[in-house]
Amino acid sequence: QFKPRIFSGIQPSGGLTLGNYLGALKRFVEKQDEGIETIYCLVDLHAITVWQDPDKLRQQTREGAAAFIAAGIDPARSILFNQSQVTAHAELGWIFNCVARMGWMGRMTQWKDKAGKHAEAASLGLFAYPSLMAADIMAYHATMVPVGEDQKQHLELTRDIAIKFNNDFKVDFFPVVEPIIEGAATRVMSLRDGTKKMSKSDPSDQSRINLTDDADQIAAKIRKAKTDPEPLPETVDGLKDRPEARNLVNIYAALAGHTVDQVIGDFAGAQFGTFKPALADLAVAKLSPITTEMNRLMKDPAEIDRILGKGAERAEAIARPIVDQVYDILGM
Ligand code: ADP
Ligand code: NA
C-alpha cells in the first residue's frame, strides 16, 4: 500500500560531527544511491527547541545543506530542504500533539537527558520534540528512516503515534515506519569518554571531529583520543569492555567500508601508536574532500538558498495533499 520512501533530518544547531556523518549523512547518500526515493531535511524547527542565535541559525542551515551536498546528496535525485519552509511539518506536529500522550513524551531518554533536573525551565517544544519528528516523517508517508542508535526510541514513538491515529479514526492512513540503524558506526562515541556519544553539544571540542576540522586538527584529536594501554586484540571478542578501543575500531571500519572483523584482522596485536596514525590518515582522506567541497559551496549562499527553495517546493507537493487528507479525516 505504501511505496518505499525514506525521510531523515539533521538539526542545523551547530557544526556537524563525525558521528552525524557516519551515523546519518554517509548512510543518507547510500540510500539515495540505492535508488530509493529520499527526502532529507534540515530540521530548524527542532533546533529552536533550545535557544538559537538567529544569524547563526541562518548560517548553520546553509552549512548543513552544504554538508549534505558535499557528502554526496544530489539535490536533483534527493529532495533537500529546510523544515520551516514547508508548513505541513508544524501543522501535522500540532495534530500529533493531540494524539500523543504526555506519558509517552515523559519517558523519552533524550528529554530526560536534555531537560535534566530543570524540566520546569525547558521549553514546551523540547518536550514535544518527538511528536514533531513523527510529523516530519508522516507528512511524507515515509516508510523508512535511517538514523543513529540515539533516535531509536523516538522512532518507536513515531510508530505508536501512527498506530494510535489509525485506531482513533478507524483508518489505515499512516504507515508504521521502520528505523534503519545499520553499519559499524550507529553510535560514535566521544574521543574523551567512551561512555558518551560524540555530539556537537559536548562542551569539549576535543571530544569530537567536526566536518570543518582540517587535517592537522583531525590527526591531533585522534592522537590524543583516550585509550587503554593494551594493544588491539586478536579477535572482536577482545574489544568487549574496551569502549574507547571499540569506538576507534568502529570508526575505522565505517570510514573504510570494512567490517569490524576485517579491521581487527588487519590490526590484530597492533599498538595504538600504529593504529591511531592509520586511523587519522583514513579519516583525513575521507573527510578532507568533503570539507573542501563544503567550503567551496559556502562561497555561494544564494545558490544554496536556491537549492533549498526548490527542495521545499518538491517537499510541499508531497506533504500538502497528505496533510489535507488528515484535516478531512479529523472533520476539519
Ligand atoms: P546531534 O545528536 O549531533 O545533535 P541530530 O540530533 O541533528 O544531531 O542528529 C542527526 C543524526 O545524526 C541522527 O540520525 C542521529 O542519530 C545521528 N547522530 C548524531 N550523533 C551521532 C553519533 N554520535 N553516532 C551516530 N549517529 C549520530
Ligand atoms: Na540526536
TrEMBL record:
GO function terms (MF aspect): ATP binding; tryptophan-tRNA ligase activity
UniProt protein name: Tryptophan--tRNA ligase
Binding-site residues, ATP: 11-13, 19-20, 148-150, 188, 197-201
Enzyme Commission designation: 6.1.1.2
Record PROSITE patterns: AA_TRNA_LIGASE_I (PS00178)
Database matches in InterPro entries: aa-tRNA-synth_I_CS (IPR001412), aa-tRNA-synth_Ic (IPR002305), Rossmann-like_a/b/a_fold (IPR014729), Trp-tRNA-ligase (IPR002306), Trp-tRNA-ligase_bac-type (IPR024109), Trp-tRNA_synthetase (IPR050203)
Protein residues bound to L-tryptophan: 136
